Amino acid sequence: GYNDFNTFYMQAASGTKGGSSGSPVVDCQGRAVALNAGSKSSSASAFFLPLERVVRALNLIRDCWDAFGIKSESVYIPRGTLQMTFQHKGFEETRRLGLRNETEQMVRLVSPAGETGMLVVDSVVPEGPAHKHLEPGDVLVHINGEVVTQFLAMETLLDDSVGKEVNLQIERGGVPLTVKLEVEDLHSITPNHFLEVSGAVIHPLSYQQV
Fold first, then answer.
1. What is the structure's pLDDT at 119?
2. Is the pLDDT of residue 96 over 90?
3. Is residue 71 very low, low, confident or very high in pLDDT (cuts 50, 70, 90)?
4. Do 182 and 162 form a contact (C-beta atoms < 8 A)?
5. Pick from 150, 143, 138, 136: which is nearest to 169 by CA?
6. Distance between CA atoms of 163 and 146, rounded to whole angstroms?
7. All domains of the chain in start order, with CATH
8. What are the residues facing 139 on neighbouring strands?
9. Which helix (DSSP H) or strand (DSSP E) does residue 87 occupy?
10. Who has greater pLDDT, 12 or 145?
């Protein structure tokens, strides 16, 4: 039932229950390391959201509070989107999609030790920035000249580029392609109103539902 994407989660055998979503996950040294996101009761599996982007939002709120003394709910947290989803696929899978050997070797050379794969386009929202430019199965190589194989690095670049253009280098069936896309403001396409008529609620579809 979850429709989150473009992020990694931590997984652990934990018996978390409903109502605990958003609560901190604390390690044996008392440090908050993640937020509880969801669980599967049939297998006692729980999924935790890492804190990197949470810390970013907290720092933005704190900086605005210190500088201007404004209320936290009025702080703007930039969120960029290309209205598309990626999946992280192993190098064996990217080779089947046509990734060239020289590209794989280059990515392995510049990536952190232990990298196991690359980001591959999974879906593109019609009429979004990537529509008619990217297709499912395209393998992401660079964003603005930087090799990107992890969701965190990709989301960081997009959040820092709202309203700007980014250059994506991909490989499609072994053919290198470069596309220039404008990063949209995720807040601008997030529904913020609804209409209630005789018990029915009518509202625009969210990005996740689309």
1. 97
2. yes
3. low
4. no
5. 143
6. 19
7. 1-77 (2.40.10), 80-187 (2.30.42.10)
8. 120, 171
9. strand 84-90
10. 145
Q: How many residues does the chain have?
A: 210
Say if CB 136 and CB 153 are below 8 A apart: no
Whole-Å CA distances, 34 to 12, 16, 45, 63: 12, 14, 15, 22
CA distance 157 to 172: 22
Full DSSP string of 104-146: HHHHHHHSPTT--EEEEEEEE-TTSTTTTT--TTPEEEEETTE
Kindly state the tokens that stand for 181: 């896309």
Q: Return the closest-CA partner of residue 103 out of 85, 120, 87, 118.
A: 118
Structure tokens given for 17: 């229950």
C-beta separation of 140 from 119 below 8 A: yes
R_g (Cα) of the chain, nearest Å: 19
Report the greatest alpha carbon distance in the chain. Answer: 61
